[in-house]
Specification:
By secondary structure, the protein is mainly alpha-helical. Helix content is about 95%, strand content about 0%. The longest helix is centred in the middle third of the chain and has 55 residues. The radius of gyration is 25 Å and the shape is rod-shaped.
Amino acid sequence: MKGLMQRAKKGQTLVEYAMIIAFISIVAISVLIALGQQANATKYTIVQQLQEAQASH
């Protein structure tokens, strides 16, 4: 009985670690997507300003 309880607890711990890893992965992906969109918007602004500066000369 004691061995069965220990095995069940190990399985529970494994599931908890898997859930934590899944949560961290989702957060990391969300942050990377947000940063990518922000970087793309910044790049667009820089290109637009360079084109305007070139057109004015």
